[in-house]
Amino acid sequence: MLGVVSDERPWDYIEAVYLTGTIDDIQRRIQQRIDAGVEEIFLHTMTADPHQLDLIAEHVLEPFSRVDTRAIR
User: In the chain, what are the helix, strand and coil shares in percent, each to the nearest 5?
Assistant: First the structure.
């Protein structure tokens, strides 16, 4: 994570742009976006660690794969 944060991209910027925090934090922020009408979210890892893909699949893709954004409108 330290390689992502720099003088040009301080932590406040990272927090505003990326989904950071605990799994609960990230799931809550995704749900807030869904509630606001977002239908698609682009997810990517913060580093080249492939384990992050497993975490995204388990804690983001799986729980939110059942969300029907059409029902929210």
Answer: 50, 0, 50
pLDDT tens column, 12-58: 888 888 888 899 999 999 999 999 999 898 888 878 899 999 999 99
* C-alpha–C-alpha distance, residues 13 and 35, integer Å: 23
Does the residue 3 lie in any domain? no
Containing domain of residue 64, as a range?
Answer: 22-71
58 found inside a domain: yes
Instruction: Determine, yes or no, domain membership for 8.
Output: no
pTM for this prediction: 0.73
> CB under 8 Å to 63, separation ≥6 — which residues?
27
Number of other CB atoms surrounding residue 7 within 10 Å: 5
Distance CA 41, CA 33 (A): 9
